[in-house]
Amino acid sequence: VDNNVTRHLDKVLAPDEKKKPSFDFLVLHYLGLDHIGHLEGARSPKIKPKLLEMDDVVKKIYAGMRTWDRSGILIICGDHGMRDAGGHGGATAAEVLVPLVIIKSDNFQCPHPLGPGPTVAQVDVAPTVAWLLNAPIPGDSTGRILPSLLPVDYRQHLYLLHVLAAHNAKQSLPANTEFYQQFKRAESQFAHFLSTGQESAAKIAKDFYEESLEDMSKYLTETTTDFDLFAIGIAIFVLYILTGALLCVTLYSFQQDPQRKTSVVRQHRSQASTIVAFAIIFFLISTTLLISCFISETKSRFCSFNPIWYLRTMNQTGDRWLFLPDTADWLNAPENSFYLEAHIVIGTILTFGVCLWNVRHMNNFMQMHSALTVCATACVFLYRISTNALDTRYAFLKTYDPVIIVNVFWGLLIFQVLFELATYIGMFTKCGFKPKNNRNKFTYTKPKAKSEDYFYDEMDEPWNIEEVKLNLARSLTHIMYNDMMLIIILLMRPH
């Protein structure tokens, strides 16, 4: 993505025959560093090379600006930061504080050579850019002009502060607040300076404007993000009622009908017995592992290979100590790439085995679901190879486009659902395709008329339409379960 932006820079930055740039305002949005943070975290070894690449981009832009016959300004900033675990969206200092660099093409002097400068608000960038372009300030803007870009001339400086303060004062500010009264005092002193030319009045007006602008910006920012707590409470209550009603209807729909004695009842009882047996076995194994871990002086072999314990070590530092190393950081180290690849391969194969075992709960007509699961797993491996998460001796596999692979993967999942629905409505049966056995769960046969001397055999009794719908719902549930596992192993970070 970043290369597609950089490769156009030489052409865009080149001046015309009059040494004038071909644009008034240019925005370059580089996404590579953000992608690295989301995928590999804040301590990824790819961050340093990416930052060096961005340094070269800044150098190229500055060199191009020096060839123009007019002065230009380069603003470098980020729309968000990054937390220690990668990603963003919180309110920590690492996520909300980002560097802001302003470079002039001529007569450039760093105003803060000994360290970082003052902290400014993100809303200050929009009015600053509008002023530099001689454009009107955005209507909903609540910021100020960045101090380092304010004009040197005192009259222009005061006039700009007057325009900003008057703009913010029009946005429904309460007149009884202190900052609004301070704004009125600044207006009075500014008018006095324009009429008399006294420097003392200009100095007082400047101080009053800056104080009122700071408080105005803070007030407008806080009131902009106002939530209607009453409406939110009503929405939560309604969702609670709807969720409870949906749960009751779902539980009622799965209750057994005593008037319908078919093999579905036996299947329900068999599934319930399997679930209970699995729960008992899981409880016994977990209890045995827990006792062996606490009684033994050294952890037993079974305890050492406890999957839950191992997964817990992936991020055992918690949110407060995310900067400390753990198993995930060890796997991400370049020298341990073999073990990371082994995790990817083993995890994908185990997930593939679970999906194949789950296929038996579907209407696997012509083994189509098994074939689609195999193809989707192959797409996962190809995607990992094309994104260099897996190494292979077959170099041609790395040339595949990851976007095309992901699109094929989504197409397979969608086709699987459509195939299940087509099987349900009998499309393949009408076209002449018939399964080798007669165990199609979606075949509906009209039941014979009952008589007093007729007794149904459980194995010969036909399905009724309610049972066919129930089988469809059960099969689609298992399809979604399979699709969810395949999507997880495709999109989640390898560690």
From TrEMBL:
<feature type="transmembrane region" description="Helical">
    <location>
        <begin position="402"/>
        <end position="426"/>
    </location>
</feature>
<dbReference type="GO" id="GO:0051267">
    <property type="term" value="F:CP2 mannose-ethanolamine phosphotransferase activity"/>
</dbReference>
<dbReference type="GO" id="GO:0006506">
    <property type="term" value="P:GPI anchor biosynthetic process"/>
</dbReference>
<dbReference type="Pfam" id="PF01663">
    <property type="entry name" value="Phosphodiest"/>
</dbReference>
<feature type="transmembrane region" description="Helical">
    <location>
        <begin position="338"/>
        <end position="359"/>
    </location>
</feature>
<dbReference type="InterPro" id="IPR002591">
    <property type="entry name" value="Phosphodiest/P_Trfase"/>
</dbReference>
<keyword id="KW-1133">Transmembrane helix</keyword>
<keyword id="KW-0812">Transmembrane</keyword>
<dbReference type="InterPro" id="IPR039527">
    <property type="entry name" value="PIGG/GPI7"/>
</dbReference>
<protein>
    <submittedName>
        <fullName>Jg1495 protein</fullName>
    </submittedName>
</protein>
<dbReference type="GO" id="GO:0005789">
    <property type="term" value="C:endoplasmic reticulum membrane"/>
</dbReference>
<feature type="transmembrane region" description="Helical">
    <location>
        <begin position="229"/>
        <end position="254"/>
    </location>
</feature>
<feature type="transmembrane region" description="Helical">
    <location>
        <begin position="275"/>
        <end position="295"/>
    </location>
</feature>
<keyword id="KW-0472">Membrane</keyword>
<dbReference type="InterPro" id="IPR017850">
    <property type="entry name" value="Alkaline_phosphatase_core_sf"/>
</dbReference>
